[in-house]
């Protein structure tokens, strides 16, 4: 039978079939050849080239399986990272998009039998966040790029700083409104004074309206009494206003800036130790507490190699020797056994080496003996757990 013409329906149908996906059971991963039907796959399996590939694979089968598994994992995670980022997505959606490429690595050539097994493995290795729902398995890529982690931490720190500024501004405005309201209430408070007559013989008259009756000998005397009363009330009111204004000036409340200055001055005079919100120091042992890195690094100890920007550090894992860049919120201090050397990380004796004498578990503190500095040999009590750590 001759070969079909290029523009014939048969040739066009063959080209369409060649472009699309075929059945997986008729695909040979070793030769990377896709057959269209069972007969073609049988012929391929009997071919000399396929037999040579099988001989090569039989010499070291684990080598080929590991290679295909690593390629499958790399391509799958790369597609998940580029296509979906860190969004939560169904694993079947990612897999269907992955196998749409004709030259992909088939799962039957890897060490995972099903997509569920591969999804569980990703969760155990800490490469993705995995959760099971009635609709199936969902995965979420974990981006461990140091640059991405640093950018996220900077954004979080900036957002927290902005919130603190907004909170301080809101408190300042509220304080100003309260002070203004208190001052207005003081100004509006009426002053009650004692009624006195300057002349005992003169009669005092009160004009209480049309219904009131005023007893008096004549109209001129009532008018005179009314004018005298008004003059007395006016002078008394001026006197009270001057007294109240002078007392308010004397008792004027201090502004927030003045209070802060006074607190700083008192602190400087007492020479109180100032605690900072950063404590990382080189050559100390810390414990990784974040779960974002997976079970491989969670609750494992590491040595701080380098400190960057006060809040981040490059640590070296004690067990595996891997180097990671972590924020201080992702690690915690390590409390050694009594008699071991530690480094004080915060407070008055910051960056001072000491020896751990005892631990107070009830108060979460310890007793240290200073081993360096001008006060060497002095014993210090009530040092919090987070203020010192074991020396490497």
Write a brief caption for the model.
The protein is an alpha+beta fold. It contains nine helices and 15 strands.
Structure description:
- With 392 residues, the protein is an alpha+beta fold.
- 42% of the residues lie in helices and 18% in strands.
- It has helices at 9-19, 38-45, 48-59, 61-84, 91-99, 115-124, 146-188, 219-250, 256-270; strands at 27-28, 33-34, 88-90, 128-133, 136-141, 285-288, 301-308, 312-317, 323-327, 331-333, 341-344, 353-360, 365-370, 379-384, 388-390.
- The strands form four sheets. It has a five-stranded antiparallel sheet.
- The longest helix has 43 residues, at 146-188.
SSE topology sketch:
Layout lengths: L8 H11 L7 E2 L4 E2 L3 H8 L2 H12 L1 H24 L3 E3 H9 L15 H10 L3 E6 L2 E6 L4 H43 L30 H32 L5 H15 L14 E4 L12 E8 L3 E6 L5 E5 L3 E3 L7 E4 L8 E8 L4 E6 L8 E6 L3 E3 L2
């Amino acid at each position: 039978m001759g070969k079909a013409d290029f523009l014939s329906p048969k040739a066009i149908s063959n080209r369409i079939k060649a472009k699309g996906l075929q059945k997986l059971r008729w695909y040979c991963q070793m030769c990377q050849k896709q057959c269209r039907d069972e007969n073609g796959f049988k012929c391929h399996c009997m071919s000399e080239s396929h037999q040579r590939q099988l001989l090569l694979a039989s010499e070291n089968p684990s080598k080929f399986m590991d290679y295909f598994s690593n390629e499958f994992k790399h391509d799958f995670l790369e597609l998940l990272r580029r296509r979906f980022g860190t969004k939560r997505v169904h694993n079947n959606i990612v897999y269907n998009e992955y196998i749409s490429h004709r030259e992909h690595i088939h799962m039957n050539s890897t060490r995972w039998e099903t997509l569920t097994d591969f999804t569980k493995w990703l969760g155990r290795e800490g490469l993705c966040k995995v959760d099971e729902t009635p609709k199936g398995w969902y995965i979420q890529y974990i981006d461990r790029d140091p640059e991405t982690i640093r950018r996220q931490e900077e954004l979080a720190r900036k957002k927290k700083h902005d919130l603190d500024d907004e909170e301080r501004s809101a408190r300042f405005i509220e304080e100003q409104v309260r002070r203004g309201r208190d001052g207005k209430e003081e100004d509006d408070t009426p002053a009650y004074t004692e009624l006195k007559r300057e002349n005992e013989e003169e009669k005092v008259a009160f004009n209480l309206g049309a219904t009131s009756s005023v007893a008096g000998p004549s109209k001129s005397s009532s008018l005179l009494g009314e004018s005298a009363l008004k003059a007395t009330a006016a002078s008394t009111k001026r006197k009270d206003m001057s007294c109240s204004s002078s007392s308010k000036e004397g008792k004027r409340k201090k502004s927030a800036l003045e209070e802060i200055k006074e607190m700083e001055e008192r602190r400087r005079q007492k020479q109180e130790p100032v605690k900072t919100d950063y404590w990382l120091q080189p050559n100390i042992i810390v414990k990784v507490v974040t779960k974002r890195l997976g079970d491989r690094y969670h609750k494992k100890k590491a040595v701080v190699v380098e400190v960057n920007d006060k809040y981040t550090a490059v640590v070296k894992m004690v067990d595996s020797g891997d180097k990671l860049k972590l924020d201080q919120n992702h690690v915690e201090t390590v409390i050694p056994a009594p008699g071991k050397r530690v480094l004080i990380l915060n407070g008055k004796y910051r960056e001072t080496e000491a020896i751990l004498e005892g631990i107070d578990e009830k108060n979460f503190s310890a007793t240290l003996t200073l081993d360096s500095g001008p006060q060497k040999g002095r014993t210090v009590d009530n040092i919090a757990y987070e203020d010192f750590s074991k020396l490497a």
